[in-house]
Specification:
Blueprint: H1 23-31, H2 41-49, E1 56-62, E2 76-82, H3 93-103, E3 108-111, H4 120-129, E4 134-139, H5 145-156, E5 176-180, E6 183-187, H6 203-209, E7 218-230, E8 234-248, E9 255-258, E10 270-275, E11 279-283, E12 287-291, E13 295-300, E14 307-311
Amino acid sequence: MNRKCMGCGNILKDDELEHNICNRCFRLKHYGEYHVTNKDNSDYSKIINNIDSNDLVIYVTSLLNLTIMDLSKFNNVIVVLTKRDILPKSVKDNKIIDYVKNHYNFKDIEVISSIKNYNLDNLISKIEKYNKKKVYLIGNTNSGKSTLLNKLIENYSESDIDITTSMYPSTTLDTIEVKINDIEFIDTPGIIDNGSVINYIDSKMLKKITPKKEVKPRTYQIKGKGSLVIEDLVRIDYETNDNSMTIYIANSVNILRVGEANPRLKNLPKREFNLENDKDIVITDLCFIKFVKGLKVKIYANNNINVYERDNLI
């Protein structure tokens, strides 16, 4: 039987068998070298289709994006909202959970931070009450699945397995099976979101836009016409009588306020929104922007990047 890398799930080559880890994971862990691997969602779909509808599914999504796929084929689902540490402490967990319950039909929801060891005992208790022998972790690339499983291994087992994690897409390449207290946890490759900004930037910019600690919201009082430019990625034109805009984004990202007539980034494709009160704009894997009142907004960005509106999360 072919042996898998315990870092990413890929099949090991002969010269990698001794260390149970592939050369790609070794270089990534020890030298930060990332090698792009061409995967698509057809690979992911095969894995999802093989999950029994009665197995327990842990759907992991980052609070910065809060994207939830169609999970109707599964009878047992726990939605895990990760990276709690990047949202301000003033935001209450119950408000986030109520938001998800009001927009999606899920019974079990847990807000966690793997890095801070936050609410993991609560999550394990919810997992155990289902009394299932197999538990699948699924979700988008970079949602925090492997980081969560590493922390569960560290906290609740004697295993020394260390799954490879990074900010780069498609770090996990195939399923990885780990036993914790007689439950088999199966980590799966992330769903590739073609609308994510991370597909269209280099590694230097990726490091810059990836939050490493609690984000400090940036609030702008806006009136009349004006513009904000986020790095060389996104331009926001607004038109309002009197409003405020709060951007939840990595602290290292530069935002420049410019006049509406300034031509910077106006060569990018434009999308227009006529927002009602209490709406957010989400730019996938970059930020979300909270508006208090209705207004007209133009977003200039790469046409492949997903930009959409939703009800205020906060």
